[in-house]
Amino acid sequence: MLEGVPVLSLIILLPLVGSLITFSLGRRENLAKWIALAFALAAFILSLVVVYEFVVDPYSAPSGEIESYSNGYQFYESHVWVETLGINYTVGMDGISLPLFVLTTLLCLLSIVFSWNTTKRPKEYFGLMLVLEVGVLGVFVSLDYFMFYVFWEIVLIPMYFMIGVWGGPNKDYAAIKFFIYTHVASLAMLIAIMAMYFEAGIETFSMVAIAEESVAFSRNMQFVIFAAMLFGFGVKLPMVPFHTWLPDAHVEAPTAGSVLLAGLLLKMGGYGLIRVAIPSLPTGAEDMMIVMAVIAVVSILYGAVLCLAQTDLKKMVAYSSISHMGFVLLGFATLGELGIVAGVFQMFAHGLVTAVLFMMCGVVQHKCGTRSIPHLGGLAKKMPIAATLLTVGFLASLGLPGLVSFAAEFMVFAAMFFKWGMWVFVPIGAVAITAGYYLWALQRSIFGPLTDRIDTSHVKDVDWYEGVPVAILIVLIAIFGVFPALVFDRIWPAVDFAMRAFGGG
Amino acid sequence: MIPIEYWLVFSSLLFCIGAYGVLTKRNAIVVLMCIEIMLNSANINLVMFSSYHSVLHIDAMDTDPSGQAFALFSIAIAAAEVAVGLAILLSVYRQYKTIEVDKINILRW
Amino acid sequence: MLEYAWLIPVFPFAAFLLISLLPKRTLSWEDGAGYAVGGAAAALILSVLVIWEVMSGSTMVGDGPKFEWLVIGDISFTFGIWIDQLTAVMLLVVSVVGTLIVVYSAGYMHGEGEKRRRYYAEIMLFISVMYGLVISDNYLQMFIFWELVGLCSYLLIGFWYEKPSAASAAKRAFIVTRVGDIMLMAGIIILFKYVGSLDFVTLFDQETAAAVPTDMMVLATALIFGGAIGKSAQFPLHEWLPDAMEGPTTVSALIHAATMVKAGVYLTARSYPLLVQAPESLLFVAVIGGVTALIAATVALVATDIKRVLAYSTISQLGYMTLALGAGGYLVLYADTGGGYSAAVLHLMNHAFFKALLFLCAGSVIHAVGTNDMRLMGGLGKKMRITSMTMLVGALAIAGIPPLSGFWSKDEVLAAVYHAGEFNAVFFLLWFMGIATVFMTAFYMFRLWFMTFAGEPRSDYHAHESPKIMTFPLMILAALAAVSGFALFISDGFKYFIEGSIGGLVHEVHHESATDILGVIFGDPLTYLSLVLAVGGMFLAYKMYYLPGFDRSVFARGISGRLQVALENRWYISKFYDDFALRVVYAVSLVADAFDRYVIDGIVNGFAHLGGRSGNVMRTVQTGNVQRYAGLVVIGLCLLLIFMLYIAPWGGW
């Protein structure tokens, strides 16, 4: 059905075209959201077609000899861009990209719906969202370091403006901090990429070709490059102690910005690690394994403990992201297939769950005018639907079985026990702390008697454009919680392939 | 033929006078004039070296007029530059009612 | 028939979906009670069919239908169903008690209006996942449902969420049981590493289980029992259960007395083939059980909230069950008999009936009086004849008066523990704790009964008997509580029946006729000892709380007074947890937050300030004076010239 159609490029182009149209609307600002919606919807539907194609016709990883890494990619496209430097426009998709790719089109679509009543400069707002989508999509399918870096940097700019223009009271500080912090990390990544390019010396930026050379780099070289990459991707992830940009950015960002930031941008860090760093630099990864594991465990526990102290609902959710992304890093740190698969799944799961949480924080903010937990209370009475959605979101985030995060967390712990035995008892305690801060927040904000610290007479329940995206996400959370195999069956062959191809497994 | 050192000392003096003027005079018009003096000192050098080149290689019939041409270019460009400079001064004067260069110091931090 | 057992949870789940998704006007009777009763009844009918099949000798252990849940490389997780004798007992408990309580709810929750819909939806979800837990055929599936019953418990304890105490109790219950759940998860992961599968059929095979090193087996089984400590409210994680009484009484009866809290006992019983390989864990189980039984009973002596008395009583009885399981493991190991195991399971069933009955009676009383405080009750016996009589049956049953159900199972439990003492002297101590608990149980139950139903009203209320829809389940449960003990005598004896579920462990077959069993029980002097203690407890309660003129203040002085204060404060365990949460965990988080803000973020901002400061210094060079710039250019040029002409050649370049 898609024979010969450059479908990935098409999906990446759609939001770009959409954003150009949106920017050039002139005075007809009200059209902006419709155009953004149309293009995001088109991209989403196309990505569903991609899923269909991918599922009915999955590549079968050759069981014996692995001839070329590029065998593993579907919808593969490659065009020469700058021949003298070996820069190609190369995109392709495997089971690791697929869930994140679809997550991207989905979350962008839902964020646009969620922002339906944005009145402040809607043209720019929706246009930037589409630009962001372009960047993230590009990152998830690029197979060329140069393109990867370009898309990676494209993502920063719209997010910077979203925080800086539509943000809260302290937006300037947060936006600058976000930009500079992640940009410094990008530079570390750029240095690592350059080092790989020159060390490989094959005059191409192709990830696949470089990876085939880089596995044979000297141990020291791999160690240094991997360390730079770990910093580059780890800041995005984020990992302790390079995480402080995240709470500030989230607290100030508009709701949709937070959704995309936590749901997608954080995943870029994890994706970079598993797509680039770990398979390309197996001995480097091995040398850094303990470092990664320690950072991951610290992130999990530290993030969870910090959540307990937060009084801002959104900031709490932001810190919980640090804790949950720690699971991703922990899974990767085991360098075993089980852990990596679980880590990738956790990224997908966290994308869905955290989107719900940030949207619900947004709802609380919009309806009650504050997110401060001590000022809230008894909201379940005033806004029962919102309370239900928030509760389900929290439960999903604390890893309740039947919802999506559980499978990932369980596998990560299992993988860690396989690798390090009794050390698993250190991060496992975070599960209880997680339950603690979420339920405590629920108790204080939506249960109990209705608060009199804010004026609740005008508090309404969720509007349709807020409720529908959250409901869709919750349905997905339940579906993938009950049938995680739907995603795992896609991820595992890809991880298996990557790990076997480069001896990292 | 006048020895080359004479020319060099002359143009250096001219240049230093111009530079002194640029650095010390407060009136922007005077500064502009001083810049012209510095430019012309360079022109003198160009013409001078060009003619010396021709004299030194007279046997080989190797005359090179490019120095002279450069000087002409330079004069033409200086004329244009003066036009632009005066225009800027005019608009600066309209804005600030002064053309004293140490008063016009908003171009900082 | 057994292969359709997976349908049992489907019916209540369908009811849950219908109640929560249908438009309100189609819910009709009691906002969804009709669907709830229908779903529960359908599951009951199916369960009875399954139980019938099991009674007639067929089981399905490891050969049932399977569903592949997750495959990652060579690791695979399948879900399936596991029906054996133990499952049948649990099914009986869940289906009968569940259905009766849903019927009772139609009366009890009548006044709740809009909220009933949420109530019925949540309770049907609970019943569904509880069935799912019971019929699981592997630890992962069990763990999933294990957490889900915890979720339902959370939601239902917090049913009246606008009450701060209810919201707080719900949170506590979830977090405390989560601590247990974590231990269970860790135990599962350990088993998974060494065996590579979580299916019971693989794990319970003695040969494959031999792949687990001995010390790991001890750890794994102890951790799995850790799950039971949380869920079955064993010491030291038992304090959530009394708090959980903030929920509606029906919820307390169903979840916190009859079914969910039994899940821990069920899990321990289910894990027997693993537990018996680790005698250290068995001893741990028994000690926890004995301590729990005693401690909870002591607190029940002074509690004044009618539901809290029952809650502590539940904890204490659950302690009996775990004690019997621990002792039973020793019997299986050294005496080749399933005596303790069967006693625990029988007590599990009997307790489910009489404790559900007691809770529902208490609910009926609360419904009539409008308070939980027994000090404000009294004299209700005349006005609520059915409630008081059925509650009396329950109280006699739990006190262990023959021929009611509690007598048979409690006697078996104590006999098993005493028997285990032959193999490890610790069990004599535990037996002593158990027998002391018998006395206290009889005392606090009759204290409750006398305070509630006897004498004169101590506050102003107009009590009346509850509607039929509430008293009808009471009467059925009272009948069950009276006779369920006779399960001991079914065909070849309950022990023979239930030993079927630990088939490979006990090699000697115990066919016992009713006369054999009776002969053993009444030929044992210890039986009479516990009977005497039980009657003594009842008599003391009668003297203290029924006969007028007893001066109770004698207990408020001296050591007994201090003891009483300690008991009224629940041995300060609850307070300890509160302090731990607030003063330690929360304080640590505040410190961490400050650390994050001022140290980590401080370093980040410090770098930013460093850039800003240095720029601040540098910018003073930019005066805006063109002539100064030009001067600098000239100076720079001169310096460059000097460098090029003199310094560079001098340096040798």
The number of distinct helices of chain B, counting runs of at least 4 residues, comes to 3
Task: Please tell me the CATH architecture of chain B by its name.
Answer: Orthogonal Bundle
Oligomer: heterotrimer
Radius of gyration of chain C: 32 Å
- The name CATH uses for the topology of chain B is Helix Hairpins
Task: Please count the beta strands of chain B (DSSP E, at least 2 residues each).
Answer: 0
**Shape label of chain B:** elongated
**Reading side by side through the largest sheet of chain C, how are the strands ordered?**
1-2
Q: So what's the overall shape of chain C?
A: globular
Question: What series of H and E elements makes up the topology of chain C?
Answer: HHEEHHHHHHHHHHHHHHHHHHHHHHHH
Number of strands of chain C: 2
CATH level-1 class of chain B: Mainly Alpha
| Largest sheet entry of chain C | 2 strands, antiparallel
Mean pLDDT of chain C: 87
What is the tally of helical segments of chain C? 26
Termini distance of chain B? 53 Å
Uncertain residue segments of chain B: none
- Work out the count of structural domains of chain C: 2
Verbal overview:
The complex is a heterotrimer of chains A (about 500), B (about 110) and C (about 650). Chain A contains 19 helices and 2 strands. Chain A has a two-stranded antiparallel sheet. In chain A, a hairpin with a 4-residue loop joins strand 1 and strand 2. The longest helix of chain A is centred in the last third of the chain and has 32 residues. About 0% of the residues of chain A have low confidence. Chain B is built from 3 helices and no strands. Chain B has about 110 residues and is mainly α. Chain C folds into 2 domains: about 140 residues; about 425 residues, no CATH class. Chain C is built from 26 helices and 2 strands. Chain C has a two-stranded antiparallel ribbon with strand order 1-2. Classes of the chains: A mainly alpha (about 500), B mainly alpha (about 110), C mainly alpha (about 650). Chains in contact: A-C, B-C. At the A-C interface, helix 6, helix 11, helix 13, helix 16 and helix 17 of A face strand 1, helix 5, helix 6 and helix 25 of C.
